[in-house]
């Protein structure tokens, strides 16, 4: 039944961040409505059946960053969310060599030592140093970034808090932190490792979703993504959601409804309505208008301000900055239904690493060359591939004996230098990826039942992410913290009163983390308290 | 006076008579210290020297333009009085692009981009002015309880704050950005974008899309902000500057010995106690200041065994791979660039026709290859200073990027082809040039390493990047010109604020020595 009347808060877009924000608002007693263009909720955290009884996590494919405090507060396990940690992973090289990652520390050491004894030693230093950076950064994820140009007590206190935390690291580690945040992943890894495959394995997580190569300064900190996981309170763990990534969105949706919030899917917001400098509600594509005191947009900033708002409602300077916000499509995705489990001759039989994320790459150089292709408007001819076969751990996703493979591909451009994305180009891109995998798995091609090929162009059209960028904006220094998304508007608020942002375009950025949604809800609630002193 | 005639004990021994070593020595001598400068080569200047590369043809060996040295420093050391003269000042920059008339990069010559350029240049100048004082001071240390360090940080913060909210936000945003995006935001002309990006990447291991290239651009602009003259050419080449610096040092009482390589730094009771020369002679000193690059200083002259393992690891990891080659041509007549105004020939010419051109040139460098279509900064110094060549003849001097140290195929093998490629590129803009060539020299980073004793042949001694900048330059624990060994200081381009013919490192180091050793 469609809800009627006016609302306290409308959230535009039922991505995971929109749902998280809505949950917090509904729990605070606001009459909250989430509007979603697609007939299903979740945005890029979805499970979809596109081929027979196969469930695809057809956009995001791994759960690592979802904040444990959100899982707890919104009682997601109660609403059906089950997270299953997966163990290890591996990297396969063209020459048949491989590196397997194990949870077991001793096994991992032995495996790295197989490639280089020195690197096995260095790994201890590496994981300690990276973990240290994680510990520094993690508490900042759930805080509103301070505005360094502001003299408001709140901003000054927050800046002092940041400074104090930094200071507590001690001199030596402060320098390490400064360097870590500004280095390239390639340079950072060079400081620890000598073996090409060890470097290539770790470098993988530094480029996922970004329009940068492993040699670009500023990519080292993206390595943290591999370590910031918190599945079952195991630091650094990654996991699957049982039933695919949509299970997260569904649990959030259920939690929202249990708190009294409402969701309407299959309705597209055409305009966010503004009168007298205040948000008043939204107009749907159908012409229907829904009133609300507050509007919170889960869309990326470009889409929010350039496509769903009247430019006349926004200052010119702000619009210029929105246009200058960098959102670049750089990743593609294949979802493949398999007739059986493909074999990977390089991996020893029975090794658990094929239940984790398997990388296909050779060297950091190969990844950098893949990036060079992207810069020139081509998909990588020898791409970096991160693939998972979640059906090994969660058989509920597939019919008996079959498998589902998620293949993340870096790099794939949004705009091609030679022509448009059409069926032929898309197929050629998919073939490149399939051929690359088949080099490591002789029976892979013969097992393919169905393959969904997704370019950034497809992701934009379906999910609504500008240019198909999975983080709703590049994670570069000029677009992080108080610069994200726009200097002066990094605290989830916009130039229009009552209008907020809660997507990954805001601090701390992308990944299925939920932190932007939670932080935005907190900002909204604080403003409400200020407006109505109880 | 030969080395046998110098005293056997000094307050300070400076290793290396490059411009930073000489600035440091002159500053110390003027404060009353007894100073000896040791130079391995047969002349002073290091990489800032003038070199005869073909009979009768002379050229500035590495940097060929003077635009970074602060006017204060030049006055302080009385360089004008010591014989420094300019052959040209305020030289124009002209961007070359195939099939288009050359574009003079100046506020009133850019047509439709003029207004955007005026706004951009004014904003960048405001930022540069705020950052300039940072270059002229010893970087603060983090985490100390000392008010001096805290005040230095607060001072920098306050200057940025004083820009006003709008500018402050913009500076904090673009500070970590890449120059490609910045120029895309501001301009539409590919040639102008290329020319402005060239200044951000010259001498660095970056392309325009590399994050941090706005920082390297601001660095250059900040130094220019306090410089004596925008783009100047010393009469007699860059070597003339160092000769003036040497005269200034000598006039203040410093002894300078060329052809006198230092073999090692002597450490006694955990502190630097002097230097042993390659000849075997020892010279005692309370303070040893090295203008050599950090790897040479710590690993060769000092020795890793005096340092702890973590520090040595940091020094080893310092990125010092040079990317810029230098091409020198002896010409039997003035080159004729198509459609170039006569005034432009005496200025700086850039072959950087677009952002993509530079980025593609850089791509090769990542894989140990040289650029197939390089980026070039060209001057014809004989236009302003005819005495560098025989009458009627000319010299062309070009910085050519990217030509990586450690070329995969080896420079032995690649030298000729890269030289041809660079000359072909120039021939495209100046038809007939090739036929007028009577002498050629290409200095690759490996030649620069050998001739000027700079590890990696990098003209900044160590890559200029966020993680090797300011408080962590060259490495944490040696960023204030101090080293883990008492009495041993650094004063070269490997220190804050870095290279280019600026002299700030030498001067800051001298002030640190004066403060630490009374």
Detail the topology: elements first, then pairings:
The complex is a heterodimer of chains A (534) and B (518).
Chain A: E1 7-12, H1 16-27, E2 32-36, E3 48-51, E4 54-56, H2 68-73, E5 83-85, E6 89-92, E7 98-101, H3 105-115, H4 117-141, H5 153-168, H6 171-182, H7 185-190, H8 196-207, E8 230-231, E9 234-235, E10 239-241, H9 246-258, E11 262-265, E12 269-275, E13 278-284, E14 289-297, H10 301-307, H11 316-324, E15 331-338, E16 357-360, H12 364-375, E17 384-388, E18 403-410, H13 423-438, H14 444-447, E19 448-454, H15 456-463, E20 499-501, H16 515-531
Parallel strand pairs in A: 1-2, 1-14, 2-11, 6-16, 14-20
Antiparallel strand pairs in A: 3-4, 5-10, 6-7, 8-9, 12-13, 13-14, 15-18, 15-19, 16-17, 17-18
Chain B: E1 9-15, H1 19-30, E2 35-38, E3 50-54, E4 57-60, H2 71-76, E5 86-88, E6 93-96, E7 103-104, H3 114-135, H4 147-161, H5 165-174, H6 179-186, H7 190-201, H8 213-225, E8 233-234, H9 238-251, E9 255-257, E10 262-268, E11 271-277, E12 282-290, H10 294-302, H11 309-317, E13 324-331, H12 342-345, E14 348-351, H13 355-366, E15 375-379, E16 394-401, H14 411-429, E17 437-443, H15 445-452, E18 488-490, H16 504-516
Helix pairs in contact in B: 1-9, 1-16, 3-8, 6-7, 7-8, 7-13
Word description of this protein:
The complex is a heterodimer of chains A (534) and B (518). Chain A is of the alpha/beta class and 534 residues long. Chain A has helices spanning 16-27, 68-73, 105-115, 117-141, 153-168, 171-182, 185-190, 196-207, 246-258, 301-307, 316-324, 364-375, 423-438, 444-447, 456-463, 515-531; strands at 7-12, 32-36, 48-51, 54-56, 83-85, 89-92, 98-101, 230-231, 234-235, 239-241, 262-265, 269-275, 278-284, 289-297, 331-338, 357-360, 384-388, 403-410, 448-454, 499-501. In chain A, the strands form five sheets. In chain A, strands 1, 2, 11, 12, 13, 14 and 20 form a seven-stranded mixed sheet that branches. In chain A, strands 7-6-16-17-18-15-19 form a seven-stranded mixed sheet, sandwiched between helices. In chain A, a hairpin with a 2-residue loop joins β3 and β4 (54-56). In chain A, α1 runs parallel beside α9 (246-258), α1 (16-27) packs parallel to α16 and α3 (105-115) packs across α4. The longest helix of chain A has 25 residues, at 117-141. The radius of gyration of chain A is 23 Å and the shape is globular. The model of chain A has no long low-confidence stretch (mean pLDDT 93). Chain B is of the alpha/beta class. Chain B folds into three domains: 3-87 and 234-319 and 462-516, FAD/NAD(P)-binding domain (3-Layer(bba) Sandwich), CATH 3.50.50.60; 103-226, no CATH class; 320-452, Guanine Nucleotide Dissociation Inhibitor, domain 2 (2-Layer Sandwich). In chain B, strands 1, 2, 9, 10, 11, 12 and 18 form a seven-stranded mixed sheet that branches. In chain B, strands 7-6-14-15-16-13-17 form a seven-stranded mixed sheet, with helices on both faces. Chain B has a two-stranded antiparallel ribbon with strand order 3-4. In chain B, a hairpin with a 2-residue loop joins β10 and β11 (271-277). In chain B, α1 (19-30) packs parallel to α16 (504-516), α6 runs antiparallel to α7 and α7 crosses α8 (213-225). The mean pLDDT of chain B is 96. The interface between A and B is large, with 37 and 37 residues.
